[in-house]
Amino acid sequence: MKKLAVVVVTLALLGLSSGAWGGGGDQYPNGAEDFLVGMAPPPGFYVINYNYFYFSHDYKDDSGDTINVGPLKDFRLRVYANVTRLIYISPLKILGANYGVHAFFPWLDVNANSLGFHIHKRGLGDIIIDPFILTWHTRYVHVVTGLDIYLPTGEYDKYRPVNIGKNFYTFEPVLGVTFMLPLKTTLSFKFMYDFNTTNNDYINPMTGKETSLKPGQEFHFDWAMAVNPLPGLRVGVTGYFYQQTTNDEIDGKDVEHQRGRAMAIGPGIRWDYKRLSLVLKTQYEFGVKNRPQGRNVWFKIAYKFL
Q1: What is the CATH number of the domain that holds 197?
Q2: Which phi and psi (to 5°) does residue 2 adopt?
Q3: Fewer CB within a 10 Å sphere, N or C end of the chain?
Q4: Which pLDDT tens digit goes with each residue over 239-283?
Q5: Residue 130: which domain range?
Q6: Domain count, the chain
Q7: What phi and psi values does residue 7 have, to the nearest 5 degrees?
């Protein structure tokens, strides 16, 4: 029982149990967006399917060093996500911008290993909606804004070591920008800032007592730079930056020295053909603190139906 308790505490520290303990809310899968992210499509109905693979064998401490003693010395984490995103961009104009809405429906499969234990959980995650998207287009700059809202729809049980749902809401203002540069080059950013509500059904992994958890606020952005050597083909580099900006709070008290940080970079390619768009990329993390460090692989399919 003592050994299992250590595993439960370990997973809680990773943010895989009853919400995160240190490291912010960590709702958004960093690196999800890339080429032309600021260039919302023309009016119509679109479906995007994201396939996300994440692998990590290292957990970093507050100094950025790998933890190789204690319950995290044999840490392993594998995540697969299949996310369906529905987008509608209308011809309606507001302040010169097209109005739109979207929703994400994530299915997650999480595997974690520590101290010889294998923890596995799968199911529907927290659904994301945005009822108010605005998109502007000029010759050299494209802009999209919105407010993504993460709903606590995923399965959650405070007594389980692994949960798919977070059991709190997140409100995430979004600003996407794409710059059309010379030599058929594009530079794109998706900026986000997360405000997390409180999980009032939480067990403190250090004490075993029921309490509340309010994850800290987070600033992060995805970016991509690409060239267009052939019609419909874009090749370049992608990455992201993540920084938790305020401390988590347990029972109203700050959790010190647990703010998460991560950066990543890697190659990517995009191909557009008529109504279809495909993206394949991989990203390697560095400069990580208070969270796993690993790499990811993304494969995205977008299709315009109407």
Answers
A1: 2.40.128.130
A2: -65, -40
A3: N
A4: 999 999 999 999 989 999 999 999 999 999 999 999 999 999 999
A5: 2-304
A6: 1
A7: -65, -45
Q: Is 85 left (phi over 0), alpha (psi -120 to 50) or beta?
A: beta
Structure tokens at 59: 């957990």
Instruction: State which amino acid sits at residue 128.
Output: I
Q: Is the pLDDT of residue 4 over 90?
A: no
Q: Which amino acid is at 277?
A: S
Mean pLDDT for the stretch of residues 124-130 = 97
User: Is the pTM here over 0.85, yes or no?
Assistant: yes
Segment 122-145 mean pLDDT: 96
